[in-house]
């Protein structure tokens, strides 16, 4: 193990606060999918768009003290299905946010959208509001699998949505795809990837379907492919994406060179983010006059009705205990293929690398971590395969 020891202290200390992002949750969908455990709710015929925007702005106002002079590096509209909202209301919201918090010159602003909500003019209008990146929830290009997943769109509509996004001027978009679907063969999973890469998306989120508690699939489990079949899908899918020029930079994220999601990277690097909207979570570093810092988790009222009734101001704030900070950092950073450096550990956690030396030593011995270029601490192939075991060494 390389000599990277420095003086240790339990209290985090920052010479410069971590970067800041903003997550905005829109909780409504056309229909709740049977695998989804996100805070999403079937939409009524009329959405309370203006009331919700007002609540979001009140929510942000309540969190402004957390900004501490920083600029926003990214904004992400997640859900639910944010594209159910009109471009008018999204644009009004962004205009008002910009009056409260400065945007970086290179800010990335992402909107999640589902194919069943695409209209050509609407997405051109989204582009004009400042949205410069889309994340399109495809999941599969196979109609029978889309039906099993409870999706409201067809394969044809998925392809049309991608074409409309490109025609609307979006030159930076992500496609969400799942694999290991009920009854899915290796060939079918690879066909989904081949169809997706034919559109040359700048980014792909390709992840395995998991059965989560509090979902319909949990109550009535579908028959999933065998472990062997899912492993073949993963191995052959990885090879296909590499051949097509996509770089895996996180467990389930792949991008063309230079097109990794800035918002997602800030999460995995343990950066700060404000979370506004029903059920939204945030992570904040508060710098104290003494030089020591305090790390906080925030979460907002989960039910849309409660959130609207309190104008977005009901919040639970919890302190991350000093002895839990290193583990929280590792839980995020070890998802990144490139890993992290000792300087990055200090910059984002506020702690010296000595805080995790015992765990690092054990991980090296087990073959779960390696050192690249003399400074990058990163998971080995074995470490990626047994990521939960690796993370457990630091918690």
Structural account:
The strands form four sheets. A nine-stranded mixed β-sheet has the order 9-10-8-7-6-5-4-1-11, with helices on both faces. The model is unreliable at 1-8 (pLDDT under 50). α1 (49-63) runs parallel beside α2 (87-100), α2 runs parallel beside α3 (120-129) and α6 (186-198) runs parallel beside α8 (227-243). The chain has a domain at 20-266: Alpha-Beta Barrel (TIM Barrel), CATH 3.20.20.70. It is α/β, with parallel strands linked by helices and 395 residues long. Helix content is 37%, strand content 23%. The two termini are 20 Å apart.
The total of helices stands at 15
Any idea what the CATH superfamily of the domain at 20-266 is called?
A: Aldolase class I
Low-confidence stretches: 1-8
Largest sheet: 9 strands, mixed
Which terms summarize this structure?
395 residues, alpha/beta, TIM Barrel, nine-stranded mixed β-sheet, three-stranded antiparallel β-sheet, 15 helices, 16 strands, disordered N terminus
């Amino acid at each position: 193990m390389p000599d990277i020891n420095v003086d240790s202290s339990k209290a985090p200390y920052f010479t410069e606060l971590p970067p800041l992002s903003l997550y905005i949750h829109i909780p409504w969908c056309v229909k709740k999918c049977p695998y989804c455990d996100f805070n999403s709710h079937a939409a009524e015929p009329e959405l309370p768009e203006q009331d919700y925007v007002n609540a979001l702005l009140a929510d942000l106002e309540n969190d402004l003290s957390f900004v501490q002079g920083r600029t926003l590096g990214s904004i992400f509209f997640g859900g639910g299905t944010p594209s159910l909202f009109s471009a008018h209301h999204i644009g009004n919201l962004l205009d008002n946010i910009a009056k409260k918090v400065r945007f970086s010159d290179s800010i990335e602003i992402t909107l999640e959208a589902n194919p069943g909500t695409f209209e050509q003019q609407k997405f051109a209008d989204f582009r004009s509001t400042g949205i410069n990146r889309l994340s399109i929830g495809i999941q599969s290009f196979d109609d029978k699998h889309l039906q099993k997943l409870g999706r409201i769109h067809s394969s044809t509509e998925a392809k049309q949505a991608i074409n409309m996004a490109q025609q609307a001027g979006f030159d930076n978009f992500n496609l969400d795809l799942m694999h290991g679907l009920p009854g899915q063969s290796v060939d079918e999973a690879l066909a989904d990837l081949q169809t997706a890469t034919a559109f040359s998306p700048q980014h792909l989120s390709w992840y395995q379907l998991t059965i989560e508690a509090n979902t319909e699939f949990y109550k009535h489990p579908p028959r999933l492919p065998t472990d062997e079949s899912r492993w073949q899908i993963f191995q052959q899918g990885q090879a296909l994406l590499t051949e097509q020029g996509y770089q895996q930079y996180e467990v389930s994220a792949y991008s063309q060179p230079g097109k990794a999601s800035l918002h997602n990277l800030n999460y995995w690097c343990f950066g700060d983010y404000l979370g506004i909207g029903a059920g939204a979570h945030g992570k904040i570093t508060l710098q104290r006059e003494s030089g020591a810092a305090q790390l906080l988790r925030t979460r907002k009222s989960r039910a849309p009705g409660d959130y609207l009734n309190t104008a977005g101001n009901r919040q639970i704030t919890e302190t991350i205990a000093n002895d839990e900070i290193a583990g929280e950092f590792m839980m995020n950073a070890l998802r990144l293929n490139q890993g992290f450096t000792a300087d990055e550990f200090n910059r984002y956690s506020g702690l010296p690398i000595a805080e995790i030396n015992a765990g690092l030593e054990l991980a090296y011995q087990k073959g779960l971590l390696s050192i690249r270029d003399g400074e990058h601490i990163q998971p080995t192939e074995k470490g990626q395969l047994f990521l939960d075991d690796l993370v457990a060494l630091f918690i």
